[in-house]
């Protein structure tokens, strides 16, 4: 295996690990914040200021980051009845078309999120005064990670046969 591929795989593994840790930490925080909010309100008779707001921000980050994880694990809904019956060359062409169209859409969404980040520079949240660029940053980060996993998934579909042929040749040697 080429050294650049090994480095790329290590970097990808590191990114995936970091994303998974962030999702677990943010989800755990969200659960604790909501439980604290509920306990404070119904057991102790007071509201914990900002718990709902920070839990909402954590939820937004979890959703956008976990979307890439769902792409990697093939958990998104897909209709592939037609795709499965296509000949190999048409499968590759279709996968290439989907990759190009999806990449174009994700690129436009990432560009559009830049305007939201600009607005977030001057806005603060209502309860705690957190700069809104922090929750808004979840959009380009999450979409960027989704783009990475999306690209990998469709590049595998496009080059699946060549990879299998190359592995067979390496095994034969």
UniProtKB/TrEMBL annotation:
A Pfam family of this chain: DctQ
InterPro entries the record matches: DctQ, TRAP_DctQ
Coiled coil: none
Topological category with respect to the lipid bilayer: Multi-pass membrane protein
Keyword Cell membrane carried by entry: yes
The UniProt record lists the keyword Iron: no
Chain ranges of the Tripartite ATP-independent periplasmic transporters DctQ component domain: 30-148
Gene Ontology terms describing biological process: C4-dicarboxylate transport
Gene Ontology molecular function: any one: transmembrane transporter activity
GO CC annotations, alphabetized: plasma membrane
Domain of life: Bacteria
Localization annotation: Cell inner membrane
Entry keywords, A to Z: Cell inner membrane, Cell membrane, Membrane, Transmembrane, Transmembrane helix, Transport
Transmembrane parts of this sequence: 17-38, 44-66, 93-113, 133-155
Subunit structure of this chain's protein: The complex comprises the extracytoplasmic solute receptor protein and the two transmembrane proteins.
Family of this protein: Belongs to the TRAP transporter small permease family.
Role according to the record: Part of the tripartite ATP-independent periplasmic (TRAP) transport system.
Designated name of the protein: TRAP transporter small permease protein
């Amino acid at each position: 295996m080429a050294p650049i591929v090994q480095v790329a795989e290590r970097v990808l593994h590191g990114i995936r690990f970091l994303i998974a840790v962030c999702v677990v930490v943010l989800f755990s925080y969200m659960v604790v914040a909501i439980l604290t909010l509920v306990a404070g309100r119904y057991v102790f008779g007071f509201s914990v200021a900002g718990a709902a707001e920070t839990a909402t921000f954590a939820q937004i980050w979890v959703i956008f980051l976990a979307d890439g994880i769902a792409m990697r694990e093939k958990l998104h809904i897909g209709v592939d009845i037609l795709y499965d019956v296509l000949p190999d060359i048409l499968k590759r062409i279709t996968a290439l078309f989907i990759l190009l169209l999806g990449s174009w859409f994700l690129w436009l969404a990432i560009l559009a999120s830049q305007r939201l980040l600009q607005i977030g520079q001057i806005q603060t949240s209502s309860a705690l005064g957190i700069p809104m660029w922090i929750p808004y940053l979840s959009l380009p980060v999450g979409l960027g990670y989704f783009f990475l996993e999306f690209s990998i998934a469709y590049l595998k579909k496009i080059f699946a046969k060549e990879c299998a042929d190359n592995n067979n040749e390496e095994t034969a040697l």
